[in-house]
Prior knowledge:
Layout: E1 3-10, E2 13-19, E3 25-31, E4 35-44, E5 56-64, E6 69-73, E7 82-87, E8 95-97, E9 101-109, E10 112-121, E11 130-135
Amino acid sequence: EEGICNLQIFQNSSLQIQTDGIGQSYYDIVYDAEKSVIMYEFKMNTTKDSSETDHTERVVFEIKNNVTELVVEDFELSNLTMFYERHCFCKGQTGMFPIKKGKLILSNIGTTLKINLQIAELDAPHFIKNLEAVIK
């Protein structure tokens, strides 16, 4: 109700994390036959009067194409190439953030991918707390 949600899967792709000249991290999505990138985006509905104009948040992570089941919790999330991305006019609270506390349950059987991600803790305020998706 508060925004527009979009889920994309980039098959046969992985994340290549880079750092720019001022120390900010960014990523490129590159070809990788063994992995896929999942990107969930929340773009806030805004009005021209709102201080939240152009507020976008994303959860981005990669999985191996051959994984059938994955359960990762809290500290183990840092072992994945996974992050929370926040873009807004909110000084000091934009950029890429590691997900420090939460749980990812993933099932990839046949042509059905099920994702359940709970995000409990970040170093920035965030709207996305839970992501549940079934992709066929």
